[in-house]
Design brief:
The chain has 14 helices and 16 strands. It is an alpha+beta fold. It has 2 domains: about 240 residues, BirA Bifunctional Protein, domain 2 (2-Layer Sandwich), CATH 3.30.930.10; about 90 residues, 3-Layer(aba) Sandwich (Rossmann fold), CATH 3.40.50. The strands form 3 sheets. It has an 8-stranded mixed sheet with strand order 1-5-6-11-10-9-7-8, with helices on both faces. The protein starts with 16 loop residues before the first helix and ends in a 7-residue tail after the last helix. The relative contact order is 0.12. Bound molecules: histidyl-adenosine monophosphate.
Amino acid sequence: MKFQKPPGTQDVLPGSAELWQFVEQTARELCRRYHYREIRTPMFEATELFQRGVGETTDIVEKEMYTFEDRGGRSMTLRPEGTAGVVRAYVENKLYGEPDIAKLYYIGPMFRYERAQAGRYRQFHQFGVEAIGSADPALDAEVIALGYSFYKAVGLKDVAVEINSVGTPQVRAAFREKLLGFLAPMKESLCKDCQSRMERNPLRVLDCKVDQAKFEGAPSILDSLDEECSAHFARVRECLDAMKIPYSINPRLVRGLDYYTHTAFEYKAQGIGSIDTVGGGGRYNGLVADIGGEDRPGVGLGIGLERTLLLLEKQGAGPALGSAVDVYFIAMGERAEREAPGIVQRLREAGLAVERDYQGRKTKAQFKAADRIGARFAAILGDEELDKREIALKDLASQEQRNVPLAGLADSIRNLITTEKGIVTNDA
Ligand code: HAM
């Protein structure tokens, strides 16, 4: 019997995992700067949370959820997105009782039963932030800026920000009628998806890639905004201008989740086939109350990490990852072998990254291994060195070798690393 990973999932192997770590660390560092604090919520929640939160007529809830009955007969769902769970935790833990607004972030797996392809998976990872407790449009701009800065900080080029206002539920209801008036005469000519969306969620029709050309001249939601929505949207733009975040206004931008009010935005980039959205978010002023909490406004974003990494790879961007191993320890002879575990352990306790041989390989093969893993130094211990309580250190880049005392070995290595090349070790 041969097992394979489930369709739409990925193994992240060493080599890629370091890139993941880089991207995740970048996200964490940005959250520190913008003062968002980490929250960790369960990977599954009551199914009803997503039905109410994300929306009954969304693709996610209708076709993409991993729903199961647990042994107690409760309907549970693997989280398809992060916002509903974070808002549930906000309500359950009464974070609204605190004097400051809640600025939260998360990094973790999400699950959607989608047709798997490059950039679209059934288990994927999001970096998300949620800011709950303020309706200030400057906060919308802060969230948009944070996402934009994330792409810049990881090294992605050509990420475009698109923004829109989807108004309030009242504004949307009025716009819906207008839009249906425009779409009705062409209904028969539209694709099946569009026809069914017309019934359930007409705003999403404008999102259709197939029929896009037919929608020229469609009414724009921006013309239907009331005074308050317009003022909010104008202020978001003002803030983005002040922050020098480039953006364009896309009045057709509708997100795939139902909770949005006012600002909706997406980050777009080319390079993953027909998929061009790498992240998105918006304001959700009704969501906290919808899932049973006090009425508090919120805004947030979700960034797809697989898509970010795919594009980094495509663009040949991303960081040059330094050598992960400082020292490859090579023992020559029985006495050295006996000393090896102790010396290696002390070096590691001193914060150096150290590797050694466990396959009984000859010295030459050990040097090869040291090169292969990109070790900075080889530390070679033989009888002669042991007699003098010394060890030979070989710089594997320059091939220079010198003997240093065994006592204080970690410090000697650290000095060599910092003074010779100005490189700081990988220690914590
Ligand atoms: P979303 O647009 O559904 O929003 O997902 C955000 C991002 O997650 C997408 O732009 C994409 O990069 C990534 N993503 C979504 N589905 C997949 C998939 N099947 N495979 C790979 N990547 C995927 C949300 O989830 C909202 N919770 C964002 C938000 C937070 N809005 C307010 N706060």
